[in-house]
Design brief:
Elements: H1 2-15, H2 17-21, E1 31-48, E2 53-54, E3 59-64, E4 66-76, E5 81-98, E6 111-131, E7 139-162, E8 167-169, E9 173-174, E10 182-195, E11 201-211, E12 220-221, E13 232-249
Antiparallel strand pairs: 1-2, 1-4, 1-13, 3-5, 4-5, 5-6, 6-7, 7-8, 7-9, 7-10, 10-11, 11-13, 12-13
Length: 250
C-alpha cells in the first residue's frame, strides 16, 4: 500500500514536469549538478514478540553520529518547483541497552542486553523541492520525497550482563542476512539556498526521514546465537535527523 502510494506520487510529479517548466525562460539552465554531505543521528523503535513497542522507558537508545556523502542532480520545473535526485553513500550508528529483561535459564537472575550497531548503504533519492520566496536572492525552501536504499553492510557487537555479575561479550558479527537488501524511506526537509559566484549556490538544510518498508527481513533474535537469551523483534522503525550541506554548479 505504501509502495503503491509512493509510485503514484512520483509518477504524478513527473507527469506535471512539462507544465511546470513553462514558467522558466527558455535560456535558463534547468539542470544543475553538485555534491552533498551530511551528518546524521538515528532513533530506533521496534516491536517485540508481545507486540509492545520498545521505547526509552524500557530500552535506552544512544544515537551516534553517522554521515552521508554523494552527488546530486537537480532539474528546475519552474521558478518554485524542482526535482532532485542523485547517488550517495551513507552510514548509521546507534547503541542500545535494555533494562533487566527476564530470568536467565529459570534461575531467577536477570539479564541486560546491549549492542553497538553499524549500517552502511547506497541511497538513491527523488525529492520535490518548493521555493517559498522565488523573487529573493537567498531562497527558503521545503522538500519531500522518497529514497531507495541498497544495504551494503550491517554489523553488531553485543554484550550480555547477568545480575550475578557475569558478562558475555559477543564478537563483532555481520547481521546483513537478517536485514532486507532494499528498503524505501520517506523524507522531508527545510533549508536555505545561498547564491555564490557564477550562478552557483550553497545549500544548508535539515532533514528527517523514516523507513516506509520493514528493514528486518524476518523476525529474528537480537542475540547472535552465542547467548542463551532470545528476543524476537520486528516492525523495526528508524527515524533519522540530518544536517546537510550541498553545493550546486550551474
Amino acid at each position: 500500500m505504501k509502495i503503491s502510494l509512493a509510485i503514484n506520487i512520483i509518477t504524478t510529479t513527473l507527469a506535471c514536469s512539462y507544465c511546470f517548466s513553462q514558467d522558466l525562460p527558455k535560456k535558463v539552465n534547468k539542470f544543475h549538478i553538485g555534491f552533498t554531505s551530511s551528518i546524521n543521528t538515528a532513533f530506533i523503535q521496534y516491536e517485540e514478540a508481545n507486540s509492545a513497542y520498545v521505547s526509552s522507558s524500557s530500552t535506552q537508545f544512544t544515537p551516534k553520529v553517522g554521515f552521508k556523502i554523494g552527488g546530486i542532480l537537480k532539474y528546475d520545473l519552474s521558478k518554485r518547483f524542482s526535482l532532485a535526485s542523485g547517488l550517495s553513500y551513507g552510514t548509521r550508528k546507534i547503541k542500545f541497552q535494555s533494562t533487566p529483561l527476564s530470568s536467565d535459564n529459570g534461575s531467577g537472575s536477570q539479564v541486560t542486553f546491549s549492542a553497538d550497531e553499524f549500517n552502511s548503504w547506497l541511497e538513491m533519492p527523488l525529492n520535490l523541492n518548493f521555493v517559498m520566496n522565488p523573487k529573493s536572492t537567498t531562497k527558503l525552501f521545503i522538500d519531500a520525497g522518497f529514497s531507495a536504499r541498497r544495504l551494503l553492510s550491517a554489523r553488531r557487537s553485543e554484550v550480555l550482563t547477568r545480575s550475578s555479575g557475569n558478562t558475555t561479550s559477543g564478537p563483532d558479527v555481520s547481521i546483513y542476512s537478517t536485514l532486507n537488501d532494499w528498503s524505501l524511506f520517506g523524507s522531508s526537509s527545510i533549508g536555505i539556498q545561498i547564491p555564490t559566484k557564477n550562478n552557483q549556490s550553497f545549500i544548508l538544510s535539515i532533514t528527517i526521514d523514516q523507513n516506509f518498508t520493514n528493514i528486518i527481513r524476518d523476525p529474528v533474535p537480537l542475540s547472535n546465537g552465542a547467548f542463551d537469551y532470545a528476543n524476537v523483534v520486528n516492525n523495526y522503525k528508524v527515524y533519522t535527523l540530518g544536517l546537510n550541506a550541498s553545493y550546486l554548479f550551474n
